[in-house]
Amino acid sequence: MTDDEAALVRRIARGDQAAFEELYRRTSPWLAVRLRRRCPDDQVVAEVMQETYLAVWRAAGGFAGAAVDGSAVGWLWTIAAHRLVDVFRRQQKHAALRPEIPADAPAAEEEALAGTVGAELGAALDGLAPELRDVLQAMVLDGLTVRETSVLLGVPEGTVKTRARRARLLLRKALS
């Protein structure tokens, strides 16, 4: 099939099951890797994946390039990230749980974007402390709010705001 993902979503909105299966085939491996980067629990990842694709089936008619990057995969990731935050919120009611992310493990999107990010920006991002990079990744790449980033990373909202400001200042300084 030569349809891009946005065309597949439009076909899904019309009830095209083959388009849904094709979208799933194309995006589920990438989505699973990205979710596992934020949550090591395979059961939670499977639950979030199921909820995400169910939401895609139900809400495909509302897709209008609404994602941060204007793409269907960005829209898909936004749905998944919100579902993951919902799971973390439910878990926090029972226990303080924060997914541990090894500081030296590259994120899926870092690997995917490695060839498209300029060397200067890449070096500046690499120079940031992992906790600053995590905040920028959640807020800028994933399009999460301060509150959602706070839940995802398991830190207070004020800390998220401080880290985001600090990361932006350090990037600005490194790029000037």
UniProtKB/TrEMBL annotation:
The keyword Amino-acid biosynthesis does not apply. Residues 120-170 form the RNA polymerase sigma factor 70 region 4 type domain. SUPFAM superfamilies: Sigma2 domain of RNA polymerase sigma factors (SSF88946), Sigma3 and sigma4 domains of RNA polymerase sigma factors (SSF88659). Keywords: Sigma factor, Transcription, Transcription regulation. Pfam families: Sigma70_r2, Sigma70_r4_2. Residues 23-93 form the RNA polymerase sigma-70 region domain. Belongs to the sigma-70 factor family. ECF subfamily. NCBIfam families: sigma70-ECF. This is ECF RNA polymerase sigma factor SigE.
